[in-house]
């Protein structure tokens, strides 16, 4: 942080004055032709030595993050609160004020004003008042650049402000060189964009916003004069953090100086001096914990974007360099966040659980075919504020509850993982009509001594045998969430193929026990199809989005575009997609996924679902799946249309033994469905394409199926029947 100009010690002042005064007088006494030769030689030599920062300035600027409309500000990142603006976007009175305040002969000198230097030296020797620097705007610009140049060492930056004859002479030479290469207006523009105006504001754009809440183009005469007056002693004169009386006195000086130069009339100066100081202080948000007021839920998306940014080599070779680029590079980032979808998701999440509830409903929305993350909501404030005693992560947290990472491995998503078994089976050539007479309990090849085992074998069961047991195919096995059908199907395909399918669609195993099982013993992970591995709403939504996009997987993407400070587009933000499923396989899985949500498959084989209210809420072609973990510890729903995929998981992020209970399932379904409806609102209705007859197969049932029994929706999907100790064993003793 720059400090006000400090008076030189009397002895040093006298010595420096003598040296410089002698130099000034000697140079001034030279004949015109000799003086011209002296200056020309000095300037040309200085130009050859100009640091790159003076040739092509790269001063720190704050970066802006916007929502996908390119207008809604999410937050800014900066080390230095500064944004460059062209001279045309700075009010003429502001330009006139800074010239009158700091360098009246700016448009007539060649970089150094020898008369001004001599006058300042004499005044400083006499003392009795504020030190006069004698530096022109060009010289001040040189000093500002050199003392803030990030490519220079700390010692070099400090040397740029040392009170030495050598430094002053170098400053004069550099200023002369710049005057030979840049126009006066360009120098003035650069100066206005780098000068420090107090209260953390660097440059006139930041100062205009900081003090008056407006753009520099809109400054009035009195406002411009006040800002211009701050340069001499920015922290002391700041009307926010310093002395307002001194700020007003300095404003009066600038106005009188403007009148003296003819920029304004004496009457205009008098009227501006009479104006009452009216401030509209505006603090620029800095970082994800300082998102726009009233939208602290955006912080979770902001943090996800920041983590993405730190992995992109386009912004630097190291994490430190990329962080510095975000905070100093002046980027304009248009993100994928859709404020309308985000608002609905946040409202729905907090409708299910309040901010102060220990349980949470994280929700994520993704666009199929692009991977663009449209919303990330949860009933928490993204904040570093302290929580009440005994409340670890509520109502405030900065943990990635929606996307996972750090200490967040995720949550069990129950029968939503049956999708991966179905896809593996379809890919292996088994049609949707693959039938199996699903029993109430299915003995498997896995040994078990847990209570409820079947002759020493693990035997998962159906939560509602009357409604689930019997001859099932993929359509109604998926629609009714029949455990024994899908455990059997996984055995036919190979559990390792199911695990590989989940990974192919972007499911990341963040829990150590899950990662170990997937790597070393996937072929024996019998319970995987029942959703015992931890996942996140973002991973789950994106996996289902892959099916919605007919087999095209896209890496989750938080940005639409990134523009550098110079206006160049950075080559990031384009969808990164690849084909991971045969189109017909994806279409077949979608056809079966119409059953759970109360719609009908293209082959008329849906006969019951666990989330039938979704059809009514969304009101257009939709598919999806419910999921309940063991003893209803978590409740999940993920749904999709061709244009949006949304997932929500009700859980206690701090205590996996806290069972959310089956009663919340209907509310989770409702929350996700309403978020989907907002996501597709106003978009053309798109239908799903039916799979081929070959992959559908011949749906011949051996006997007529009874009508689905009407049951309360929240009881339809108690998807697992695994004893707790067996579940821990299946997961490598890692988690219950």
Automatic annotation (TrEMBL):
Pfam families: Transgly (PF00912), Transpeptidase (PF00905)
The UniProt record lists the keyword ATP-binding: no
Catalytic activity: [GlcNAc-(1->4)-Mur2Ac(oyl-L-Ala-gamma-D-Glu-L-Lys-D-Ala-D-Ala)](n)-di-trans,octa-cis-undecaprenyl diphosphate + beta-D-GlcNAc-(1->4)-Mur2Ac(oyl-L-Ala-gamma-D-Glu-L-Lys-D-Ala-D-Ala)-di-trans,octa-cis-undecaprenyl diphosphate = [GlcNAc-(1->4)-Mur2Ac(oyl-L-Ala-gamma-D-Glu-L-Lys-D-Ala-D-Ala)](n+1)-di-trans,octa-cis-undecaprenyl diphosphate + di-trans,octa-cis-undecaprenyl diphosphate + H(+); Preferential cleavage: (Ac)2-L-Lys-D-Ala-|-D-Ala. Also transpeptidation of peptidyl-alanyl moieties that are N-acyl substituents of D-alanine
Stretches assigned to the Penicillin-binding protein transpeptidase domain: 364-667
UniProt biased composition (Low complexity): 712-727
Segments forming domain Glycosyl transferase family: 73-258
Compositionally biased intervals (Pro residues): 701-711
Keywords annotated in UniProt: Carboxypeptidase, Glycosyltransferase, Hydrolase, Multifunctional enzyme, Protease, Transferase
UniProt-annotated stretches for the region Disordered: 683-736
Alphabetized SUPFAM superfamilies for the sequence: beta-lactamase/transpeptidase-like, Lysozyme-like
InterPro entries per the UniProt record, alphabetical: Beta-lactam/transpept-like, Glyco_trans_51, Glycosyltr_51/Transpeptidase, Lysozyme-like_dom_sf, PBP_transglycosylase, PCN-bd_Tpept
Keyword Transport: no
UniProt-listed PANTHER family: BINDING PROTEIN TRANSPEPTIDASE, PUTATIVE-RELATED, PEPTIDOGLYCAN GLYCOSYLTRANSFERASE
Protein name: Penicillin-binding protein
């Amino acid at each position: 942080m720059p400090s006000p100009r400090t008076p030189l010690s009397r002895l040093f002042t006298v010595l420096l004055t003598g040296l410089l005064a002698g130099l000034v007088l000697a140079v001034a006494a030279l004949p015109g032709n000799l003086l011209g030769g002296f200056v020309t030689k000095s300037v040309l030599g200085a130009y050859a030595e100009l640091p790159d920062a003076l040739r092509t300035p790269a001063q720190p600027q704050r970066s802006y993050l916007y929502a996908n409309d390119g207008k809604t500000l999410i937050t800014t990142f900066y080390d230095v609160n500064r944004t460059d603006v062209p001279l045309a976007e700075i009010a003429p009175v502001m330009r006139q004020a800074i010239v009158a305040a700091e360098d009246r002969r700016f448009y007539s000198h060649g970089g150094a004003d020898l008369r001004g230097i001599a006058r300042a030296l004499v005044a400083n020797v006499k003392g009795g008042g504020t030190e006069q620097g004698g530096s022109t705007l060009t010289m001040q610009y040189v000093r500002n650049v050199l003392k803030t140049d990030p490519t220079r060492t700390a010692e070099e930056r400090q040397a740029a402000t040392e009170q030495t004859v050598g430094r002053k002479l170098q400053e004069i030479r550099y200023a002369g060189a710049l005057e030979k290469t840049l126009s006066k207006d360009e120098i003035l523009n650069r100066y206005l964009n780098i000068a420090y105006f107090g209260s953390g504001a660097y440059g006139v754009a930041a100062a205009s916003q900081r003090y008056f809440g407006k753009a520099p183009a809109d400054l009035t005469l009195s406002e411009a004069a006040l800002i211009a007056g701050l340069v001499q002693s920015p922290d002391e004169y700041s009307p926010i953090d310093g002395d307002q009386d001194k700020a007003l006195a300095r404003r009066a000086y600038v106005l009188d100086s403007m009148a003296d130069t003819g920029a304004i009339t004496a009457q205009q100066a008098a009227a501006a001096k009479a104006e009452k100081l009216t401030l509209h202080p505006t603090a620029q948000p800095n970082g994800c914990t300082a998102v726009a007021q009233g939208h602290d839920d955006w912080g979770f998306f902001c943090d996800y974007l920041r983590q993405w940014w730190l992995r992109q080599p386009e912004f630097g070779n190291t994490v430190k360099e990329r962080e510095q680029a975000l905070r100093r590079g002046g980027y304009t980032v248009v993100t994928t966040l859709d404020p309308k979808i985000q608002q609905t998701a946040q409202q729905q999440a907090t409708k299910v659980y309040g901010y102060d509830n220990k349980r949470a409903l994280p929700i994520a929305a993704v666009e199929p075919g692009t991977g663009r993350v449209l919303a990330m909501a949860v009933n928490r404030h993204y904040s570093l504020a302290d929580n009440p005693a005994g409340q670890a992560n509520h109502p405030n947290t900065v943990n990635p509850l929606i996307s996972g990472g750090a200490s967040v491995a995720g949550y069990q998503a129950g029968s939503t993982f049956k999708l991966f078994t179905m896809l593996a089976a379809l890919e292996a050539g088994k049609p949707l009509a693959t039938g199996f007479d699903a029993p109430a309990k299915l003995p498997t090849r896995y040994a078990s001594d847990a209570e409820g085992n079947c002759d020493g074998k693990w035997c998962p069961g159906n939560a509602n045998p009357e409604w689930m047991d019997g001859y099932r195919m993929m359509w109604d096995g998926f629609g009714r969430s029949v455990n024994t059908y899908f455990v059997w199907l996984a055995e036919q395909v190979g559990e390792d193929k199911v695990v590989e399918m989940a990974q192919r669609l972007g499911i990341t195993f963040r829990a150590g026990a899950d990662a170990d099982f997937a790597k070393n013993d996937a072929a024996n992970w019998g319970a995987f199809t029942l959703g015992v591995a931890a996942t996140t709403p973002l991973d789950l939504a994106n996996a289902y989005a892959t099916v919605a996009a007919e087999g095209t997987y896209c890496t989750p993407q938080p940005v639409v575009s990134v523009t550098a400070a110079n206006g160049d587009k950075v080559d990031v933000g384009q969808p990164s997609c690849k084909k991971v499923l045969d189109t017909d396989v994806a279409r077949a899985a979608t056809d079966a996924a119409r059953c759970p949500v109360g719609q009908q498959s293209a082959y008329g084989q849906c006969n019951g679902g666990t989330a039938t209210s979704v059809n009514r809420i969304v009101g257009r072609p939709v598919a999806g799946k419910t999921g309940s973990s063991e003893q209803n510890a978590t409740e999940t729903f993920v749904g999709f249309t061709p244009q949006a995929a949304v997932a929500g998981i009700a859980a206690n992020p701090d205590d996996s033994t806290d069972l959310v209970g089956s009663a919340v399932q209907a509310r989770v379904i409702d929350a996700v469905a309403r978020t989907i409806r907002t996501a597709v609102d106003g978009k053309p209705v798109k239908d799903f394409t039916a799979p081929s007859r070959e992959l559908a197969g011949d749906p011949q049932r051996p006997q007529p199926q009874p009508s689905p029994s009407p049951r309360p929706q929240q009881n339809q999907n108690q998807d697992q029947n695994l004893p707790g100790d067996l579940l821990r064993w299946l997961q490598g003793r890692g988690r219950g």
